[in-house]
Amino acid sequence: DERLPLRIEVESAALSGAYDRISETTYRRAAKNVWQLGLGFLLLFSAFQTTQNFATTVMKDLGYSQLGYQSLSIIYLTVSVLQFGGVPAVEVLKPRLALVLGAACYTLYIASLIEIVPAIVLAFSFVLGVGAVILWTGQGVYL
Question: Cα–Cα distance between 44 and 102 in angstroms, integer?
Fold first, then answer.
């Protein structure tokens, strides 16, 4: 059954006597949230992964031999260092706003690659790292 995780939750609630608190409306809303989030992530990460895969090669061909590697290093270093700040940030922002801001950071990074200016690319690499932290934490809380 494609609704297995929610079905398990409903069945465990039924066993605990709380079944009447979980309605069909709640189930439909949760399913809608999963579909919306899945579609949003599909679109966002189709664009980002394509950009990331080509960043090092294209930048090298344009004469920026290490910029792609530096950009990706900044992104993942920022995520690693700031990951523990994701939960407090999402508590302040709330999950939906965290998702929107996180996705906006990915979009800004992709846009910074339209015209390659090393300082701007590196600055938006950091912005993307911060955005990734709140996006992934917000996604976990939202679901």
Answer: 10
Nearest of 115, 139, 108 to residue 58 by alpha carbon: 115
In angstroms and rounded to an integer, the radius of gyration of the C-alpha atoms of the chain is: 19
Helix ranges (DSSP H) in 62-112? 67-82, 86-93, 95-112
pTM of the model: 0.77
N-to-C CA span, the chain: 19
- Count of CA atoms in the C-beta half-sphere (13 A) of 48: 21
Q: Which residues contact 68 (CB under 8 A, 6 or more apart)?
A: 55, 56, 57, 58, 59, 60
The yes-or-no verdict on residue 113 having pLDDT over 60 is yes
Contact 99, 142 (CB under 8 A): yes
Residue 121's Cβ-side half-sphere holds a number of Cα atoms within 13 Å equal to 20
